[in-house]
Amino acid sequence: MQLVYPSEEYRLAFERFYDDFVNHDKENASYYEGGKKNFDRYIQSLIDESNGVNLPEGYVPCHHYWLVDSSQEILGVIRIRHNINTPFLSHEAGHIGYDIAPRFRGQGYGKAMLKLALPKACQLGIATALITADEDNIASRTVIEHNGGQLDKIVQGKVFQYPIARYWVDCCC
């Protein structure tokens, strides 16, 4: 397994990834809909976001990576925000966000993906990352804790109207 930059090489794998969300996790499929509608534009928007170009209001520069296996299947997606200098990011979203494709959940890929991403966050100058999960999302909380996450506190989300567990994770170990 490895983290790769989104690229044309993974177009068909991305379509399968997106379809998996549509069929098994519709709530989160919308995050990837742009890639289904116009893959080239979607990839360019991810590249722009990593370079801090054409950012929508409230966004910060953010690197996107896809976790792929030896058959070049996309198992998951992880985002590393360069900073959390907005109220939303500093309160409830954090530096790192991730998704595992529904058909690959519960197999340890989230733990592996976050482990691979932490040195990349360190390279971006993030010594300690804020990573959050819904309070009741035990699987995501386990991923964070497995990677050294220390629970800071539970907060009430302002954008997401539910309790959120906030963790701090050392990136430069």
UniProtKB/TrEMBL annotation:
GO terms for molecular function: acyltransferase activity, transferring groups other than amino-acyl groups. It comes from the Bacteria. Residues 8-169 form the N-acetyltransferase domain. It holds the Pfam family Acetyltransf_3. InterPro entries: Acyl_CoA_acyltransferase, GNAT_dom. This is N-acetyltransferase domain-containing protein. It comes from Photobacterium gaetbulicola Gung47.
